[in-house]
Amino acid sequence: MSHKQGFRWISLRTRLAIYSRDDWRCLACGRKVTWRKGRGKWTDHRPTAASLDHVTPRCVGGSNAPSNLITLCVGCNSARADVPIGAWRPELLDTVAIAVSTPIDRAMGRALADELDPAFGERMRAKDRGARRRARSTPPPSTQRGCAVLNGL
After folding, report:
1. How far apart are CA 130 and CA 135, in angstroms?
2. Considering just the CA atoms, what is the radius of gyration of the chain in Å?
3. C-alpha dihedral over 37, 40, 41, 43, to 10 degrees?
4. Residue span of the structural domain in which 56 resides
């Protein structure tokens, strides 16, 4: 099952930090990828457009954590679909393991986001201040939302 998550499921700074961690290259074909600022919708279908791919899909328990995300070009991401990496391209398993075990540089992601959108930094700082205030005044949620496991998987 394939679905489009859109663009806003991960912060811009984290997205850019993951692309940077992976050296702005598709981990499958090695092609240099590029990214351009959008308006919250995934509309960039150029072959060299960067995209994030879940190593373990969300619907089978994977997360949106950087340790579960890799950089693929749009073409490779579409070709992989929901096929496990080991079944799609077994020779990538070592490359993916190295990438996901490498921590992202959050400061680099923040700097890249500020460079792409100067107003971004101020919006994120205001958002972070608001989140800290809310965290001090509200109890933690009792349940976490997750992806429903598909029948038959």
Report:
1. 9
2. 17
3. -10
4. 12-106
Has residue 153 been placed in a domain? no
> Rounded to an integer, what distance in angstroms lies between the CA atom of residue 2 and that of residue 120?
31
- Only one residue has tokens 């998987």, namely 153
- Secondary structure percentages of the chain, helix, strand, coil, to 5: 45, 10, 45
Q: Find all residues with CB under 8 Å of 124, minimum gap 6, and list them.
A: 11, 13, 110, 113
Residue 119 belongs to some domain of the structure: no
Q: Work out how many domains the chain is built from and give that number.
A: 1
Q: What is the pLDDT of residues 30-84, one digit of tens each?
A: 999 988 766 444 456 677 889 999 999 888 889 999 999 999 998 999 899 888 9
Residue 116 and residue 94: Cα distance in Å, rounded?
A: 32
